[in-house]
Amino acid sequence: MAKASRAFVCQACGAVTSRWAGKCASCGEWNSIIEEAAPSGSPSLIAIKGGKGRLTALETLGTATREAPRLPTGIAELDRVLGGGLVPGSAVLVGGDPGIGKSTLLLQAAAALVSSGAHAVYLSGEEAPAQIRMRAARLGLAEAPVALGAETNIANIVATLGSAAAPALIVIDSVQTLWSDSMEAAPGTISQLRACASALIAHAKASGSALILIGHVTKDGQIAGPKVIEHMVDTVLSFEALSGHQFRILRAVKNRFGPTEEIGVFEMREQGLKEVANPSALFLSDREQGAPGTAVFAGMEGTRPLLVEIQALVAPSSLGTPRRAVVGWDPNRLAMLLAVLEARCGVRLGTHDVYLNVAGGLRLNEPAADLAAAAALISSMSATPAPDDTVYFGEVSLTGAVRTVSHVDQRLKEAAKLGFTRAVVPAAAREGKREAKEIGIVPVSQLEELVALFSLPQA
Fold first, then answer.
1. Does residue 174 have a cis peptide bond before it, meaning omega lies within 30 degrees of 0?
2. Are 252 and 106 within one domain?
3. Considering just the CA atoms, what is the radius of gyration of the chain in Å?
4. What is the model's pTM?
């Protein structure tokens, strides 16, 4: 009897090797190679039933297409991130840290959906139906007619879903627990993940049901498992939060039916996740006015303008190498900004400890935060409070020039709506001020001009 062939597969990148190794040569991950059964047959040969395939109809780019229909979930913030609601037949992957609220949010979405007359199925591989009902009772959703099930065998799941009318929504919690008896690999391995996700996505496409897969994340915050699953699904959502904060940020990392980097803001309460309709007002609600070292940044998260406070503390250091601590912003961006302040503006920060924090637990990714971070640093260094009615945005280059950013008018309108009367912006951004006439503009073309606003003496 022929011995079954084996292969060693990296669970991080999918690379296949003939022997085990502690470190993957392709992606550099340690202890990620697991022995699995090699697929039967030669991968280079493609079997074609009957000797020939069917002809595929081809279309032109000018062919009229109908916009994808939307299925509102009943949770406005979730619909916003999805691009207007769930698309029937689409597959959505939701990732986030343990305990952040993924299951709670999707249970609430399923309950809101069935309240409108639709049918939803919630299948869990981690909890029994009794445990899910306990959580639903705590959230006040005990009367919602959501179909519950506990199953991890993919064949049983597909057979159950196909035995009745196709539901509008299918929630799988979580994809790492699924397994197929046609494969020898353990649940959660790359082979099982690929096969089970492919079977569920194929069923969703054929039946027209919207599929939501919950995925675990690694210690680095990345969705666990191979990247191929993220390529297979239509939408990838990331649930984010900082430890100790009650706010939850749902961010669209990939979306074939809407904008990426769109965010939805939720607040964790005893009754579950509650939507935050005006996150700018919430992030600024505890702002201490008149304190040095703070500046309000008018940013953009997807298509939503968002105002957030940036806090800085600059203090003389007794260490040979001063400390640089950042929360909610790119540390490399802070290092570049400190170098520009010292080299181009003469602000001596090399002997000072620098701490920078984005209030509220939000993480900023856009370069437009440079000007607000610089204002907070200069305000702390000079012990001069920034004006309470002023917002800042603009990108700082290595030459010290302040460059313009996108969505200027939307940022200004959001600032004016929250009562701000002045905005320090790049000089080239004055042309974008079209509708927000009630807010004054202070244009700056060089970072030195911002330093002058705080009357900080230059070396």
1. yes
2. yes
3. 26
4. 0.79
